[in-house]
Amino acid sequence: MSYIKIGSKQHHRAAIGMLLGSVVTFATMYSPQPLISLFTEEYGVSPALASASISITTMALAVALLFVSRLSNLWGRKGMMSLSLLLSSGFAIASAFVDNYYIFLVLRLLQGVSIAGFPSIAMAYLNEEFSPESIGKVVGVYVAGTSLGGLIGRVVVGAMTDLTNWKTALILLGVVNLVLSLWFWRNLPESGNFTRKRESAVQWLSSMKQAFLNRDLLRIYLTGFLLMGVYISILDYIGYLLLEAPYNLSQTIFGFLFVVNLAGTASSVLFGKLTDRYSRRSVIALAMGVLLAGMILTMVGGLWVKIAGVALVAFGFFAGHSVASGWVGILASKNIKAQASSIYLLFYYGGSSLIGMSGGFFLSHFGWNGLIIYLGFLLIAAAGIAVSAHDVRARVPSRTGAAAGAVARDSRPVISKKTTFHVR
Hints:
By secondary structure, the chain is mainly α. It has helices at 9-30, 36-43, 47-50, 52-75, 77-95, 101-115, 119-129, 135-163, 166-187, 201-213, 215-242, 251-256, 263-277, 280-297, 303-331, 337-387, 401-419. The two termini are 33 Å apart.
């Protein structure tokens, strides 16, 4: 098997391609988030329906993720990823030319389906084309692109909306994404180690059933569902609080609020290390405590206190997600790891969609404090579910200390690389 050599021309093209692909994917996915309160004002829709501009995309993505990886096993990696990026960019441009909000939502749904073709295949491509000893260098660039993409999408659209209007902002972002997608298609090295695989529907369904019916895994799926739902609800609806009196932030300044998501990069690494020393139950409970503290801060104090609260929410969420996603990889047996990861992402993005939309109901009827109380109960439920799951550290004492440390070191980095890119 011939791997791409670090430092070679192919390595640089692959690294740049992965960076640009993840930027396009996550910029497209989250670009309407600063506009949610604007949709309520312009189209006269409820906050719950306005937030569907994000939730319908993430739900479509969640479902499509279950199937796209199977297609790539038959059709190839680069072609599927390129098609994903080109289609999602095209739908982004098209969405700016519609005047009916419901048609806009249909295009956002199609974006979700098309987006799924990149994140579900990118890690498979990297694992096939780079040696285990060198893949970390490329994955680091790819993960950076996921954070950068979500940030760019929100900030660029927010700033351009102030300068022009939101439709022009989406067109500009879509055109830039299209150019980046074309570069990806032309320059990403072809798969050299890909082998087409055939798996019957019966085999696939059997593995999915096994991964779904595992009680400990199901607890972690539900934890991811609730965590993501709480987090995305706060990001979806914070604009209703900060864009109106007494704060009256501009779209540009509000867009830069999402820089706080970068706190998640530090927290995911920090809490990943903590799981080497302490039980996952304790570590995830701590992460949720930080998230809850941030939620409470958004209910009190002035503007800067609320911004600090959102930063704590991001810190706690990414910490909790890194622990939960790593837990899935360790609990799942070798033959169902891929299926368990897919189901976790289904629940994860499902929480973004379903809880995100339900949060709009509470905001409309009970205000911001009512929304936070609702989300607080969900977070407490998530903590209770998580701490009831089997703590895999309980398996370690039967091994020698050195072996136990090796297990922790061997498992955690791989999980981090495979899951962090989904968070943004």
